[in-house]
Amino acid sequence: MPELPEVELHARRLRRWLVGRVVERVQVEDAGAIRPRPSTRPSEAMPDGPARLQRLPGARVEAVLRRGKRLGMRLTEAVGTDLLLHLGMTGRWVRRSTAEAGPPRHARLGLAAGGRWHWFVDARRFGCVVPMAPTELRSALERGLGPDALEPLGGSELAARVCRGRGRAAVKVALMDQSRLAGLGNIHVVEVLFQSGVHPARPVGELSASEWERLAELIPRHLRAALAEQPGDGDVAYLTEGEIDNPFAVYARAGQPCPHCGEEIERARQSGRSTFWCPGCQPRG
DNA sequence: TGAAATGTTAACGA
DNA sequence: ATCGTTAACATTTC
Fold first, then answer.
1. Nucleotides of chain C within 7 Å of a protein C-beta?
2. Confidence class for position A245, pLDDT limits 50, 70, 90
3. Nucleotides on strand B with an atom closer than 7 A to protein CB?
4. Rounded CA gap, A256 and A42, in Å?
5. Closest protein residue to C9 using CA and C1' atoms?
């Protein structure tokens, strides 16, 4: 899942692990993970992807950037190749000692630096690594994305962005549109709407100014709180795979009592994704 | 066995 | 044309 908090967490970890270090080796386990453009299909691999990545050894990692759910890795300019990273649904980077026997399960590619392996692991294979010219990285990170959802935005500006061109769209679907606001995914948009007391199916054109103010304030606050709860160390864990308890107030809690008012959390589908809300706290208006 | 899963988008229908 | 929903991608898990 990575949504914005998990992607930002990756940015910080990759900075800590790699910035200032020289890439010693590259190991490609799955050439399909190397793509010509972000958001391409696993079957649309970059034909010369492995060859492009083999230029990296000797390059120093200069910076790790993030916008919305996209990550960028700047390398020594002389190498002529930077990387755009997308985690897709299940992608993550893990660090392993070089003494470890081999790549972890579902490893797609690895970078050796600072005496350790840094593996891009992605069971569902929607994530990718996109090699590109350094001049292209900035636009690849920004093109088609609205402002980063972690940055505070005024209520009226948020309303203008999210409503632009449509007044009848459901607020949940509009908030997940990355070209309007970059970073909210299915889980956190559901949580933010619950905290804001806004029903996910409300048309954007019908929200009041004070509701927009509340959303504008709660979006960055909620994302920062989610980020603060992430482990500083160890591998990133996503909800579906583990025995970790569901940390969310309403997401994946259909039929359970609302933590605020005790009413039963409801579930429905919007644009093919599950939505959860409390009928008591989030009236249809 | 079937359904659903955190992301994104091409293709379809109104 | 614009809007919005569905199907698809690939794989795992319940």
1. 2-14
2. confident
3. 4-9
4. 37
5. A41
User: Which residue type does A80 have?
Assistant: G
Q: What distances in angstroms separate CA A80 from CA A138, A166, A182, A190, one per listed residue?
A: 14, 42, 28, 41
A195, A251 in Cβ contact below 8 A? Answer: no
pLDDT given at position A176:
96
Distance, CA of A217 to C1' of B11, in Å: 37
3-class secondary-structure state, position A20:
coil
Where would I find the beta strands (DSSP E) of A19-127? 23-28, 61-67, 70-75, 82-86, 91-97, 107-113, 116-122
The residue type at A73? M
Name the nearest CA neighbour of A31 among A44, A40, A21.
A44
Report pTM.
0.95
Strand partners, A82: A132
Segment (H or E) for A194: helix A186-196
Buried b (16+ CB within 10 A) or exposed e, A2-15: bbbbbbbbbbebbb
Report percent pLDDT > 90 for chain A: 87
pLDDT digits (tens, 9 = 90+) for A79-114: 999 999 999 999 999 999 988 889 999 999 999 999
Q: A49 and A131 in contact (C-beta within 8 Å)?
A: yes
Annotated catalytic residue A257: no
Coil/strand/helix, residue A75 = strand
